[in-house]
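In the previous chapter we treated chains in isolation. Here, by contrast, the input contains two separate entities that must be folded as one system, with a combined length of 625 residues.
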Amino acid sequence: MSLVIGVCYAAAVFLLLQKRLIQIILGIALLGHATNLLIFVSAGLHGNSLPIIPAGMEVLPATAVDPLPQALILTAIVIGLALFGFSLALAYRCVAVLGHDDIDQITHTDSLDDSSLIDNQSIEDNINS
Amino acid sequence: MNNILILPLLVPLLTAALGILTRKKVNIQRWVSILGMALYLIVAIIMMGQVLEFDYITIQAGGWQAPYGITLIADILAAIMVLFVGIISFTVILYTLMSCNKDEFSPAFHPLVHFLVMGVSGAFLTGDIFNLYVFFEVMLMASFALLTLEGRAEQTEGAIKYVVLNLLSSAIFLGGLGLLYAKVGTLNMADISLISQQAIADDNIGPIRLAGLLFFITFSIKAGMFPFFFWLPASYHTPSVPVSALFAGLLTKVGVYSLIRLHTVIMPGEVLGHKLILIMGVATMLIGVLGAASQMHIRRILSFHIISQIGYIVVGIAIKTPLALAAAIYFIGHNIIAKGNLFLVGGIASNAVGSEKLSKIGGMWKAWPQLGIIFLISAFSLAGLPPLSGFVAKFSMVWATLESQLWWVMLAVIFTGLFTLYSMVKIWNEVFWKDHPDPNWEFSKSKSSLRLFPMGLMALIIILLGLGGGPLFDICLRAGEQLIDPSAYIEAVMRV
């Protein structure tokens, strides 16, 4: 299990270091899944019965799994799905507006001298607003 | 009485819902938004009063006792933070209303701001570390949407960097949570604090420290600390003016707040290295201010200043005496107001003159001296001139470094203050003092002159914060003392 998590993390980091936006987003999604697995393991893998007190007993049997990490993962999956959806939409928007998804060319907001087309647009927008 | 604690979450949530329902009727939505924010501000003031009286307010959500249920808790620090969130959000919403052009903002703007406020206040008030993660995500979601609201090319670019780095930090946070839960078996901050104190006593702090370091990296990314700050100057100048003012005031402060919480309450003692945080704080301070000195774009200069100001606060956290923590807390409050106001003034000035680049603008003082006065008050406050709020903040920080005999840190603090002044004077000279490069340039201020009112209000708060520095600092000192000794916090959470 820890091997699976490790491979997931490694693949995610590899994808994050790629040049194309879509690979980076997939990398982040994979990172999220690796983390979910990590939380899953944090409950321990020894449990083999439901965390429900069986009829006739007062306490949980010692073999019951800890249900809390599964609830945490559920929350994390839902949040992760929403964020994944948002980043895909953002990537789509990026391609639509900028015409490429190469992150090496996305440097306009960082350059000291942003005399590019983008700045002119923003001036027009500012004047309009 | 304790139920007031749920209101800072409930009020923005309901306002946002109402805002979505009224999205087609701009006038009603604007009224709903400002009334909701006013209500939030009132709740924050009442809560502040109660916390000052009782020290802690707690509720256990759903009546489940700690550490099994989710705890909401307000100590003085949290109450101060919620109060300042109220002030800045209220003035920013007021600013958006003071415009004749009703279609300036998308109908999604007001609900998103309220969701953002809800996420931020949730992060301040929660006593459960997984809950902190959830509120981080609420806040991030709202901020992603606000950042890309207009969908312009530069916004998309800025948003990509912002989104990717913040998602990465969330994944790291979640990983830390998993490791921590595997070790301590609880998510309640007070309970974790007890267990980690025990672990220090048993000399078995390693696994908890690992999770703590992962949290530390997360919060440093969110706070914009060196070497994790690159997303901030890449994105903060791209959204519309009120959005960047809100971001400047709120988002990084959540990271800093969480760092205070982590370093004092959740993992007290020497779990995270003081030296490490101190060096990172000083580096953040210097790099931020030097980065600002090299920029020639109003809001980018201000963005780099956010980073350097974060450095001050982190230095205060690292020194970790009641005085230093109080200075850090005062600094956060002062910074939220001064920075937010500077972003508003800078944004409105550049809208009025048609560019944000210093080389292309000028002549604002002749055209609009009132705006110049408001800018001067905020900028001098940021640079730390008496009698404004920044002076109290910086003076107490220098005092705290002296008390702990950290001479080199004191020198860095003073040096950064000087360079802050330099940048502010640069903006002043270029935007307000020199003549406009285009001699035929004519200025029309009619459409936004009402906006002076919220900015003037903030300038007034800055002056009041400075003049009332003594009693206000005493409150911060109380907050600092609460943080140094988490036993009362633990007791407040754990008692039935």
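The mean pLDDT of chain B is 83. The beta strands of chain B are 57-60, 71-74. Compare these points with the single-chain example from earlier in the chapter.
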